[in-house]
Specification:
Layout: H1 2-28, H2 34-45, H3 54-60, E1 70-74, H4 76-82, H5 85-88, E2 94-98, H6 104-109, H7 111-114, E3 122-126, H8 129-133, H9 141-157, E4 161-165, H10 182-198, E5 202-204, H11 207-210, H12 230-259, E6 262-263, E7 269-270, H13 284-289, H14 312-316
Helix pairs in contact: 9-10
Length: about 325
């Protein structure tokens, strides 16, 4: 009997102590950081973080007459770069609209507010690396491509020239190791280059200038292998300037092309129309090809239909006398 009583007492002690022990175990688990809690709450309330630049956009307003505004859309790489704009691009109307950690679907949601509504001449899109890292869930390359194409189409539909920037090289993400992003980035950039060539966008190749032998970021250009340092941004600056200049040239050429006459299906010339609805110009060739006016509209009697050449008196008889002069019977 004694062993049974000892067993019962032991079970009772465990039941009494179990609530305290579970509480102690719960208290030993690390509590979420305040920043993580705030970020999670913001994602629930404003997944695309539309509030981030809403006030700044209202203050910025529309571009001045003749201003060639450029908006940089992106993630933390763009957000970190914006603070260098005044020194790297002095006097240039460049506007940074990057948000750290964002993926292409989030950028697509805020594209109208943070790009189109600002009425830029050019948008520079640098996005996709956080999709590959899985910041908002797993993404295939096709999903990323769809979002990039949608942003480009929205911009072009609103008269904005597009610069598609290659994803910067990454060998491994410090916050999510083991994903082997390098070959995925290379494949995404190859698609981007092909898409830009086929759809009138400008492809900006950062990757070739910043990659090492492993297709990762060069060690001298980024401390963590992902985000450029001062030297990295300094290398990117002239590349983006050339791409923006190319986009602006394309914009000007497109305007001039709309003013020029075009050849129709049968070789005839077509003309763009002015805002009034009238032809913008009328070529000399067309005026030369116009049929001569008939005699009854003040043209030469010799060109009147059915006229046979005769003496001058007979030809004069075909002419309608001027108004106000008596008609001879």
């Amino acid at each position: 009997m004694l062993p049974s009583r000892v067993l019962l007492l032991s079970l009772g002690a465990l039941l009494v102590l179990s609530p305290d022990s579970s509480a102690a175990q719960a208290s030993s688990q690390p509590s979420p950081s305040p920043k993580r809690t705030v970020d999670e709450e913001r994602l629930r309330a404003d997944w695309a973080n539309l509030a981030r630049y809403r006030a700044d956009n209202a203050v910025l307003g529309a571009p001045a007459a003749g201003e060639q505004r450029v908006v940089f859309m992106g993630n933390s790489i763009t957000e970190g770069w914006a603070r260098y704009f005044p020194t790297m691009f002095p006097g240039k109307p460049y506007v940074g609209r990057g948000i750290g950690g964002q993926t292409t679907p989030q950028m697509l949601v805020r594209f109208r507010q943070d790009v189109i509504a600002l009425k830029p001449a050019v948008v520079v899109i640098l996005a996709g690396t956080n999709d590959i890292a899985g910041n908002t869930g797993a993404s295939t390359l096709e999903m990323i491509e769809d979002n990039l194409a949608s942003m480009a189409e929205l911009a072009q539909a609103n008269g904005i020239k597009v610069v598609l920037s290659s994803v910067l090289p990454v060998f491994d993400y410090p916050w999510r190791p083991g994903l082997e992003p390098a070959p995925k980035i290379v494949a995404l950039n190859a698609w981007m280059k092909q898409y830009a060539a086929a759809h009138g966008a400008v492809y900006l190749d950062y990757h070739s200038a910043m990659a090492d032998a492993r297709q990762g970021m060069r060690a001298d250009l980024a401390g963590d292998g992902v985000h450029p340092n001062d030297k990295g941004y300094g290398l990117m600056a002239p590349l983006v300037e050339r791409a923006i200049a190319e986009a602006l040239r394309g914009r000007q050429e497109a305007r001039e092309q709309r003013r020029r006459p075009r050849r129709g299906a049968h070789g005839s010339r077509e003309f763009s129309r002015a805002p009034s609805g009238r032809p913008a110009d009328f070529p000399v060739e067309a005026r030369r090809r116009r049929a001569p006016l008939p005699a009854w509209r003040g043209g030469c009697a010799a060109h009147a239909p059915g006229h046979r050449r005769g003496p001058p008196r007979a030809r004069r008889g075909l002419l309608i006398p001027p108004v106000g002069r008596p008609h001879a019977s």
